[in-house]
Amino acid sequence: MRIAEGGLEITVADARDGAQDGSGDSVFFNPTQELNRDITVAVLRAYRDREPRAETYLDAMAASGIRGVRAANEGYSVTCADIDVDAIDLAKENLAGNGFDGEAIHRDVNAVLHDGYYDIVDIDPFGTPMPFADAAFANTRDLVCVTATDTAPLCGAHQKSGIRKYSSLPQNTDYHPEMGLRILLGALIRTAARYDTAATPILSHVSRHYVRTYLELDNRATRADRAIEQLGFIHHCEDCLERDHEYGLFPQSVPEHCPHCDSNRTLTAGPLWLGPTAEAAFAGVVRSHLSEEMGTYKRAHRLLETIEGEINTPTHYDQHKLCELWGVPANSMDEFISALHDAGYDASNAHYSGTAFKCPETIKTIEAAAAPEKD
Ligand SMILES: C[S@@+](CC[C@H](N)C(=O)[O-])C[C@H]1O[C@@H](n2cnc3c(N)ncnc32)[C@H](O)[C@@H]1O
Predict the structure, then answer these.
(1) Which CATH fold would you assign to the domain 317-370?
(2) Ligand 1 lined by 63 (C-beta under 6 Å)
(3) Are 20 and 14 in contact (CB under 8 A)?
(4) Model confidence, pTM
(5) Ligand 1 centroid – CA 294 distance (Å)
């Protein structure tokens, strides 16, 4: 089946043949990942201004090669890799059909990376990216782009699987998309540090059922040490929903009672990333590189605008959950955030959902400043 994406024509397998969930024999293709791919193209454009030296792009898990074709269209020197021979045949056809002479290799990406360096590596697997993280951080010069679709292990809903895959303890909280992102970032940043490399997230988003992040690399051990210093733990109360953060590789103590309400329903998650998940200025540059022919232009624009304005501290609150806790009807997000600003607090929308917001204050302070009136 022929589809058009980003102004290019690509041959992909049909969803009716199991292409979308990877269930059938056909080469994987998921049309709902167009937002992910559109933002990737805008990142590749923005990254050229930031690091003009970056030239080579490895579409490490190419399937139809759609990412590779789109990167080649941006002038990158592209290699597609996949362990599925049908995928590689299709990726070759799609590169050639669009007039690009990129390479397509039928090989395990860990072996491909063992043999050579790339400036930008894009890891887009089924489920967890961790089996590919070591090879990616050891053999990439500038930027590692990562998708993780195993959101249930990441956010603590499938906790044992999360512990196995990410060597960390995730907890299922009311801010589960951010929990997932920070658990993933913690694991990726620790993996990069094994190679004396600092991996800094310059853009991240959690959309639908996946996490996407772009990590810029710096091969200085001192920078890797500084990245490790931004790992830590979240202590969360299931009753009052307050959460506290603690930096370090070991929690000083795991609270048995919530310091805010004395409940014994406390959870500790980590180690996870407590640093910024994106650079606001870079998100703005990426937004300026979206183009209107992109199928998800409006959504991507809105998403990046929110990320640009998002306060970059852990963790977001859900306004509906807080209003439920306070026993009041929810008002509009604009009204709610304005009330926080009027009271002199920093507050912003957060991209995780329409009711997500960031405010570095406690729930008690937020309630006093912005809780809507009871009916
Ligand atoms: C989710 S799909 C990739 C989708 C594609 N990047 C896109 O945007 O449409 C994952 C692909 O990874 C491939 N794959 C799985 N394990 C691999 C490995 N070890 N090395 C290379 N490719 C692998 C699968 O064959 C599959 O085509």
Answers:
(1) Phenylalanyl-tRNA Synthetase; Chain B, domain 1 (3.30.56)
(2) yes
(3) no
(4) 0.97
(5) 23
Is the interface score ipTM higher than 0.95?
yes
Instruction: Tell me how far CA of residue 238 lies from CA of 37, 153, 233, 326, 359, in angstroms.
Output: 36, 19, 16, 14, 19
Q: How far is the CA of 343 from the centre of ligand 1 (A)?
A: 49
Pick the residue whose CA is nearest to atom 25 on ligand 1.
84
Cβ–ligand 1 contact at 108 (below 6 Å): yes
Q: Is 119 in the pocket of ligand 1 (CB under 6 A)?
A: no
| Residue 241 φ/ψ region, left for φ over 0, alpha for ψ in the -120 to 50 degree band, beta for the rest | left
Architecture of 2-309 per CATH? 3-Layer(aba) Sandwich (3.40)
Decide whether 2-309 matches 317-370 in CATH topology.
no
| Ligand 1 centroid distance, CA of 288 (Å) | 29
Q: Are 215 and 143 in contact (CB under 8 A)?
A: yes
**Centroid of ligand 1 to alpha carbon of 145 (angstroms):** 14
CA–CA separation, 315 and 370 (whole Å): 18
Q: For the chain, which residues make up each domain, given as ranges?
A: 2-309, 317-370
pLDDT per residue, tens digit, the chain (375 aa), is 899 999 999 999 876 666 666 666 789 899 999 999 999 999 999 999 999 999 999 999 999 999 999 999 999 999 999 999 999 999 999 999 999 999 999 999 999 999 999 999 999 999 999 999 999 999 999 999 999 999 999 999 999 999 999 999 999 999 999 999 999 999 999 999 999 999 999 999 999 899 999 999 999 999 999 999 999 999 999 999 999 999 999 999 889 999 999 999 999 999 999 999 999 999 999 999 999 999 999 999 999 999 999 999 999 999 999 999 999 999 999 999 999 999 999 999 999 999 999 999 999 999 999 999 987
- CA 148 to mean position of chain CA atoms: 8
61 lines ligand 1 (CB under 6 A): yes
**With a 6 A CB cut-off, is 241 part of the ligand 1 pocket?**
no
Q: Is the CB of 272 under 6 A from ligand 1?
A: no
